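Input:
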Amino acid sequence: MLTYPTALGNSVRPSERHYRPLDAVHTTDSEDGAGSLDRLMHFSGIVVSYARNAEIFGEDEAAESLYKVISGTACTYKILSDGRRQIGEFYLPGECFGLEYTSKHSYSAEAITDAEILVVKKSAVMALAGRDPAVTRRLLTLTAIELARVQDRILLLSKTAQERVVGFLLEMARRMPTDNAIDLPMLRQDIADYLGLTIETVSRTLKTLKNHAAIDVSTRHVVLRNRLTLSRMNG
Amino acid sequence: MLTYPTALGNSVRPSERHYRPLDAVHTTDSEDGAGSLDRLMHFSGIVVSYARNAEIFGEDEAAESLYKVISGTACTYKILSDGRRQIGEFYLPGECFGLEYTSKHSYSAEAITDAEILVVKKSAVMALAGRDPAVTRRLLTLTAIELARVQDRILLLSKTAQERVVGFLLEMARRMPTDNAIDLPMLRQDIADYLGLTIETVSRTLKTLKNHAAIDVSTRHVVLRNRLTLSRMNG
DNA sequence: CGGTCTTTTGAAGTGCTTCAAAATACGTGG
DNA sequence: CCACGTATTTTGAAGCACTTCAAAAGACCG
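Output:
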C-alpha cells in the first residue's frame, strides 16, 4: 500500500470531498461542555492536510493529540500478524478520534481520502478540563458515544455477510447529511476490512442487494431504494 | 433459557465462586478519583444477590444505576432477531458495568453464576461528580478502559475460531488472580456466544489445543501449559 | 441412584474465502 | 480531450472452516 507524502502545518488545501459543512457541527454551549471543548479545539488546534493514504499516527506512537475531521474521511486500523487489516472505525467530517487514555496509541490512523484534520494537543485539552469541569463531562460523553458505537460493531460482526453490508450501509446513511444517497469515501477493500469480509464478498453482496432492488450501486455511490427490505435484511 | 428467582435487598448470601478478594480491588486515592468513586459506591450502594441466570437489568429499561461485581460473574448480552445471543462482556469480581450515558440500557445483563453485585444510583454518582471533578475523571478513565477492551474484542472477532478461543483464554488468565489456572465461571455456550462461534466449535477447538499440549482442560478448569505456543496461535 | 443439564463427538451441509482472470474506473501525459 | 497504464472492482470456480443436525457420553444435583 502506497504512502503519500504528508503536508504538515496550518495549510488549508482543498480536499477531494466535503460531506458536511463545518457549520453543521454541534457548536452550541451546553451543560455537557460541548461548547467549551469545541471552541478550544478550533482555537488551539491546527488544521493539517493529509493526502489520501497518508498516516495520521501510528500504533505505539505517543498519543499526544485529539483529532477532529474537518473535511475528507479518516480511519483507524490495526494490522494483524497474518497481514490482514482490521479497520476500527471511519471518521467523517465533524467526528473526533484519538480518544484514548493510554500514553501510546493502540492502533494507527490514516486519511482514506485527502483530508483536513484539526489536531489539538491533549495537554491543552486537559489543562482546560482542569479549569472547566464541563469539558471533562464532554470528553466522557464523547467516549461513551464511541463505546456505544463499538459495541454495536460487535453485534454487526456476529452476523452474516449480507447483514454486515446492510448494517454498514444503514449506518453510513445515518451519518451522512443526505438521506438515502451515500457517497462512499472508501474503497471496497476498506469496507471489507471494516466488516471482516473479503473484497469479493462485499462486491457480490452489493450486487445481490441491487438485484433484489434494495439499493442502487455504482463504484462510489449508493442509493438506498427500499429501507424496509434493508431493515428486514439487517437481522 | 430458565430464569431463576432474584433475591433482592441487602442480603449477603454466599455465592458459588470467589475469584478475587474484594480488598484486592484498587481503592487508594489518586488524581483520577478512584478513591472517591469507590468510597461512594461502597457507602451509598447496596449489595444485591442474584441467583445464576437471574436478570440484573433488561434492554430498554431505564439505566439508573452503576454496578460492581463483589462475587461471582455477570455478563451483558443482546439477543439478535434470529434468536442468537451475543455476549458483550463478562464481568469478574472488582469490575464495573453499566457505564452507559444514555437513559435506557442498550443491552441486558445477567448473573452467570450466583453473584453479589454492588448497585449504586447514577444520580448519587453524578451528584458526587458535580462536587468532585476527580470522580468525573475516574468515570472517564473507566469508560476509556472499557472502550479499549471492546476495541480489542473487534480484533478478536475478525480472527479464526482457534485464535478466538486462544485469545479468550489468555484474556481470562490475565484477569484472574491465578497465573495459568483458570476456573471458568461460564458454560461453553456462554463462551460460544461471547466469541461468535457455536458450542461445538468451542468444544472441538479446546480439544485441539489440548491435543497440541498447549492446555489442560476439564469442564470448568483450564491450565495454560504452553504460553509460547498459545501466543503463536493468537494471530 | 435417577433425571436433567451440559459437553463431546460424528457426519453432512453451506457460506465465505481463496485463487485466477476479465472488466471497469481512474489518473496522467501527450 | 483522448490514449494508455495502473488501480480497483467484478465475476467465476474450487476449497475449506465453521455450522447444523443428531446422538452419545459425561457432569451435576436432589
